[in-house]
Specification:
This protein has about 210 residues and is α+β, with helices and mostly antiparallel strands. It has a single domain, classed as Ribosomal Protein S5, domain 2. It contains seven helices and six strands; from the N terminus they run βββαβαααββααα. Strands 1, 2, 3, 4, 5 and 6 form a six-stranded mixed sheet that branches. β5 and β6 form a beta hairpin. α1 crosses α3. The longest helix has 18 residues. The radius of gyration is 18 Å and the shape is elongated.
């Protein structure tokens, strides 16, 4: 019998919350992890060797974190969403591997430790934390705050037809921004958190997106 794992997609760099604000959305990665004679992935990208598969790497890392060797695992992809579209596919794959490993091996790893391990593997806290905890997450350094999104805010997602690579998209960013822009962005980010967490009325959202 396998372990079924369901992880939400995420939208990170949310609005003005660059590298610090992310939210879970209603698309999911669904996997089944089962003990096997040899490691393999079924239903994923056949061009990726299993040892390079992010879910498998995370699975192995979870065992290594407690000083154990991971057993061979078969990863069946039961459901997925478009990759390379800014929906946190890598974060979901990593969280699935970590959570699946903890369940499969009954590993003594706290949520916070598992989250920090996910951040080390993926590199972007605003992607992995909403995938692990759901909701809206504000990440800073080694800490984070989770908010429950306001029920009156109804998001929708426009998925681009083409794929893009995160590293390539970041290369077009300027090294510096004017002080006035930084101040305006900080105000917009604070407003966005206030609206999405129901502290402020949705009408104020225009301040965060103008």
């Amino acid at each position: 019998m396998g372990i079924d794992v369901r992880v939400p997609a995420t939208v990170a760099n949310l609005g003005p919350g660059f590298d610090c604000l992310g939210v879970a959305v209603g698309l999911h990665l669904e996997l089944r992890l089962s003990r096997a004679e040899k490691a393999e992935t079924v239903g994923g990208d056949p061009s990726i060797p299993v040892e390079d598969d992010l879910t498998h790497r995370a699975f192995v890392s979870a065992y290594a974190a407690v000083g154990e060797q991971a057993p061979p695992v078969r990863i069946d992809v039961l459901g997925a969403y478009p990759q390379g579209r800014g929906l946190g596919a890598s974060a979901a794959a990593i969280v699935a591997g970590l959570v699946g490993a903890r369940a499969a091996g009954d590993l003594d790893v706290a949520d916070s430790e598992l989250a920090r391990l996910a951040i080390r593997i993926e590199g972007h806290a605003d992607n992995v934390l909403p995938a692990m905890f759901g909701g809206l997450v504000l990440a800073s350094g080694d800490g984070w705050i989770r908010f429950t999104p306001a029920p009156g805010v109804l998001p929708f997602i426009l998925v681009a037809p083409g794929r893009f690579v995160t590293a390539e998209s970041r290369r077009v960013l300027p090294a510096e921004v004017p002080r006035a822009d930084a101040i305006a962005n900080a105000a917009a980010a604070a407003t966005l958190v206030a609206v999405l967490s129901a502290i402020e009325a949705p009408a104020a959202l225009m301040m965060a997106t103008a």
